[in-house]
Amino acid sequence: METYETKVFASVLPVGQSVQPDLNRPVRPVAYIQVGWLPPPMPGKVLFGAMPDRRLRFRRPVPLQVYEEDGSIIARSPELDEFGCGTSVADALQDIGKTLAEEYVFLHEQADQLGEALRDQYRRLSEFVEYRPRQ
Fold first, then answer.
1. What are the chain's domains?
2. How far apart are CA 91 and CA 88, in angstroms?
3. Taking a C-beta distance cutoff of 8 angstroms, is the pair 109, 126 a contact?
């Protein structure tokens, strides 16, 4: 749902003055009215656990920081050093979910060929993500 804001200017007419304003005089704004849906407040911190890849599941939610930067919404995991971005909070959360899923699958498939830094990242990511058991 899009949000928008419109400023509506109103002028107070003295008693007895006609409804037609004098167009030669400037209108003095006396009220601003917000019209439309207000954007939801920025959550700040979120525990994220919505895995977009059905092969995977979260062992536990990932703590995220959610904030606005340069007109984009950023969802960042300081623990995993990963982020997602979008035009809304939902888009940013969906983006980081896809990022974490793709990274986990890649690191899992390459686990025996990883260098030290990527092994550490895979270990940290494995604290949060795992493959679903087959049924």
1. 45-131 (3.30.160)
2. 5
3. no
